[in-house]
Design brief:
The strands form two sheets. The chain has an eight-stranded mixed sheet with strand order 3-2-1-4-5-6-9-10, with helices on both faces. α1 runs parallel beside α10, α5 packs parallel to α6 and α7 packs across α11. It has eleven helices and ten strands. β1, α3 and β2 form a beta-alpha-beta unit. The chain is α/β, with parallel strands linked by helices. Bound molecules: NADP nicotinamide-adenine-dinucleotide phosphate (NAP).
Length: 338
């Protein structure tokens, strides 16, 4: 249950942060994926207005983060907040390790982590670590980063009496429904897949083509399914320590996310929703997931329009989540036994 059943698609992140101002005060918060015009910018702005003790902003362009910080500083309520920018390229395991070290050196605890960064690219690309670009950036990089920050997240949980107030939020998408995890082909090299790894039937040829293993929609969808399964695993492994993870669909917001898609891709995205939110509204669900003290789901959960919602079955199955955890450990070359 959330505190405000009246919050919904039109609720803004500023309203949510104001409603949970007490939950922001004195907290150490990390937002990952922050650029002008992005949802991360709106999340950072809303949080900064309510006296966090420390706001850490990590993204792949320090220049863009600094533009956001300058904007935050123009507001009376947030001009004195301590904000630090961290350079992080989630598509590189080396960069993730360096950034995690920096974040760990900047704070003794992390009360809230919002894993918001993602990309959506048209062509199949492999990272220098040999992973498909969506899977690497939108899931594997965040998996490694979060695990490397866990000691600081655990410190925050120890310091608070309210179990479940320490939160890890994974920003996913309703688009996850287009693909389960392709355990046998996470890099999109094959057209033949086991039944439980195939996209749901009935999708158009532009998304699922019998001769083409890759489409940007499937690449993005697999990574967004991974975000939800990651939350399932985190809650299962950490709830005993007072840490809970939620995955959230922010709604449809015209940000920079689709800027790399061609005209056809952009037009397909435009048809995915009848309701388009502004950036502040797009930040709202993640902030409910991060701050609402009434949220108390022992299984963790998926949220949309500021309320608990139902994700695809393949994205919430505990056994699949555990399988993804092991695959992710293998791909980052490190085990995390929580
Ligand atoms: N907008 C929507 O309609 C919508 C719908 C469903 C879900 N979402 C989810 O909402 C979240 C935020 O997306 P958005 O719409 O705000 O998109 P956005 O404007 O493109 O913002 C994404 C942020 O992630 C950063 N980022 C991208 N690649 C990175 C990397 N390799 N390392 C570190 N940071 C990286 C981007 O930096 P750069 O500016 O440098 O690229 C940017 O700051 C994503 O998880 C997305 O999947 C959005």
């Amino acid at each position: 249950m959330t505190t405000f059943p009246s919050f919904g698609a039109e609720t803004s992140g500023s309203e949510v942060a104001a409603a949970f101002s007490e939950q922001v005060r004195g907290k150490h918060v990390l937002v990952v994926g922050v650029s002008p015009g992005s949802l991360g910018e709106h999340m950072a702005e809303a949080i900064a207005s309510h006296k966090p003790e420390l706001l850490l902003l990590a993204s792949r362009s320090l220049e863009k983060i600094n533009t956001v910080i300058s904007q935050i500083r123009t507001k009376e309520a947030s001009k004195n907040v301590e904000i630090r920018a961290i350079n992080l390229d989630l598509s590189s395991l080396e960069s993730v390790r360096t950034a995690a070290q920096e974040i760990n050196s900047l704070t003794p605890k992390l009360d809230v982590v919002i894993n918001n960064a993602a990309i959506n690219v048209p062509d199949r690309q492999l990272t220098k670590d040999g992973l498909e670009m969506h899977f690497a950036t939108n899931h594997i990089g965040l998996f490694l980063l979060t695990n490397l920050l866990l000691p600081k997240i655990e410190e925050a949980a120890k310091a608070t009496e309210k179990k479940g107030a320490t939160r890890i939020v994974n920003v996913t998408s309703a688009g996850h429904r287009l693909s389960p995890i392709r355990f046998s082909d996470y890099n999109f090299e094959r057209t033949e897949l086991p039944v439980d790894e195939r996209p749901p039937p009935g999708l158009p040829l532009s998304i699922v083509h019998p001769d083409k293993p890759y489409s940007s929609f499937l690449g993005y969808a697999q990574s967004k399914t991974a975000n939800i399964l990651f939350s399932v695993s985190l809650t299962e492994k950490l709830k005993g320590k007072g840490i809970v993870s939620y995955s959230v669909h922010p709604g449809s917001i015209w940000t920079g996310l689709s800027r790399n898609l061609d005209e056809e891709g952009q037009s397909m995205i435009k048809q995915t929703s009848k309701v388009w939110k502004n950036g502040d509204q797009g930040a709202a669900t993640a902030l409910v997931a991060a701050l609402d003290p009434s949220l108390d789901e022992p299984q963790g959960a998926y949220m949309s329009d500021c309320q608990l919602a139902q994700a695809a079955e393949f994205a919430i199955d505990g056994k699949v989540a555990e399988r993804l955890w092991h695959l992710s450990e293998k791909l980052v070359g490190q085990d995390f036994i929580l």
